[in-house]
Design a protein that fits this description.
This protein has 191 residues and is mainly α. It is 59% helix and 9% strand. A hairpin with a 2-residue loop joins strand 2 (51-52) and strand 3.
């Protein structure tokens, strides 16, 4: 029986939402606040705690001040209590399909199977080069490293400046194309 590893990444959605409302990527907002980009990323992705041994870390305080909020509002106790920002668990194929509810989970698992790879790549070839690049990098397919949208912007993977919202639109359009009945039926046949 096939097993799939499902990884859940926890993020500070309030911090991310405030940044997106300003139309900024992580690099821009960290420059505006005056802190290191990797430190800002660690606070948003919850890889690092906003609390230090003696209270709020100075970077967390600067981020809260920038947004006009207190640290308690921007980093509520539920966020401060998270011990691991990424949690992984193995699921059976049926459990993974039930959780995902989409064709793309099939595409990810199929890309590992040599016989199915041709079918998957045939479906992917119908996407624009921009859509292919976004999906490959977003989901770690075809030998690419899995990246967040912010990381994709910083790496300039599509060769032009775009916003997080635009990358999300490109990703969603590509997934809609793959879910189209004419393509998804072929993908399900080889699953």
């Amino acid at each position: 029986m096939k097993e799939f590893e499902v990884t859940i990444k926890v993020r500070n959605n309030l911090l991310k939402q405030r940044r997106l409302e300003l139309g900024m990527n992580q690099a821009d907002i960290s420059r505006a606040i005056g802190i290191n980009h990797s430190l800002y990323n660690a606070l948003e992705t919850m890889k690092d705690s906003p609390m230090g041994p003696r209270g709020w870390r100075p970077a967390a305080q600067r981020v809260a001040d920038f947004h006009g909020l207190s640290c308690e509002e921007l980093f509520p106790s539920a966020i401060r209590s998270v011990k691991k920002a990424t949690v992984s668990r193995l699921f059976t194929a049926d459990e993974a399909q039930m959780l995902s509810g989409g064709v793309f989970s099939d595409v990810q698992s199929l890309s590992e199977n040599a016989q199915s790879r041709d079918v998957v790549m045939g479906a992917v070839k119908l996407l624009t080069p921009e859509e292919q690049s976004v999906l490959f990098h977003r989901f770690g397919l075809a030998g690419h490293e899995e990246m967040t949208r912010e990381e994709m912007i910083d790496a300039n993977i599509i060769g032009r400046k775009v916003t997080v919202v635009r990358l999300q639109q490109i990703e969603e359009k590509a997934l809609r194309k793959l879910r189209h009945p004419s393509r998804s039926a072929k993908l399900r046949e080889v699953a």
